[in-house]
Amino acid sequence: MSKIQGEDLELAIKNIYARKTLKNYKYGKDGKGVETVDLQVKLRGYGPKDVRFSGSVKLQYDTRKSVKVCVLGNKKDFDEAVSKKFEALSVEEMEKKFKSKDKKLKTKEVKKLCNKYTGFVASGSLITKIPRILGPGLSKAGKFPAVIEQGDTIEEKIAEISKTVKFQFKKEVCIGTAVGHLDLKPEQLKINVTTTINFLVSLLKKNWQNIATITIKSNQGRPQQIFPSGGVEAQDETALARRKAQEKKKSKTKKEGEPKQKAEKKDEKKEEKKEEKKEEKKVEKKTEAPKETKKPEGKKQQPKKEKK
């Protein structure tokens, strides 16, 4: 049973989509990018000694507009992926690239690979070999490859990855994942959010009692707290435009104040150096040995002239 009120969720989604109605709305380098919507959950009653949990659920709609997937394939799947212009790594390439015996270097290389791609797809015959070649890095990052079984196509598996949400609790109390993008309809995003939350609650030991807060947020938007209720405020176009103008003013004042601050810092440094030099001179004068004072020699007695 969901404890999130439908009104709060609808208002939060409405606020997220309200940003797109602004005249100067842009996202991405070209200004044609699509923002993803993230779900952020803060847990309570969980510590480092608690049992770790993990799970994945397939949503009804895509979580991201574009997904970058790498195919870890045998000769057949590798050739197919290259012919269809998918990024792929063969067994030989993986063994050469991650051959180093130094564990630290190997983990760094695997981390780079994980950060480069959203997910991985692998041939069924390679699943047992991947941990030996790459180590535990993919599973630690929550990106262990999806298996291409007989009868499956690479396109189907990539589409499945774009709709799949994974949760993995280790030590961190905050969990986040992408649940949709702004090219979806508000109703579609609502379905994705509710199914994701209900699945996460089912993984927790005390269900809703282990959840402190739930917020949804687009890349550039403000966080909208949907649990506990009462954390969402209505945002119309005028309010958004006003906030944007305030942010611009703040950024301008910061830029204008930067050269003044630099000049002030330079003056301060000069004064500090002068003071340091003065103190050094004082110390030098104290450390110098006192000069020996010459005693005034008495007047030489001239020989008395004999009186004739």
Outline of the structure:
With 308 residues, the chain is an alpha/beta fold. The chain folds into three domains: 1-53 and 169-235, Ribosomal protein L1/L10, rRNA-binding domain (Ribulose 1,5 Bisphosphate Carboxylase/Oxygenase), CATH 3.30.190; 68-164, Ribosomal protein L1/L10, domain II (Rossmann fold, 3-Layer(aba) Sandwich); 238-275. Helices cover 43% and strands 18% of the residues.
Work out the number of β strands: 10
Shape: extended
Which architecture name of the largest domain does CATH use? Answer: 2-Layer Sandwich
Are there runs of 5+ residues with pLDDT below 50, and where?
none
Spatial strand order of the main sheet: 8-1-9-10
- Count of helical regions: 9
> In the CATH hierarchy, what is the superfamily of the largest domain?
Ribosomal protein L1/L10, rRNA-binding domain
Largest sheet: 4 strands, antiparallel
Distance between the termini: 144 Å
SSE string, helices as H and strands as E: HEEEHEHHEHHEHEEHEEH
CATH fold-level topology of the largest domain: Ribulose 1,5 Bisphosphate Carboxylase/Oxygenase
Q: Kindly estimate the percentage of residues that lie in beta strands according to DSSP.
A: 15-25%
The computed structural class is alpha/beta
Mean pLDDT over the residues: 82
For this entry, give a set of tags.
four-stranded parallel beta sheet, Ribulose 1,5 Bisphosphate Carboxylase/Oxygenase, four-stranded antiparallel beta sheet, Rossmann fold, 308 residues, alpha/beta
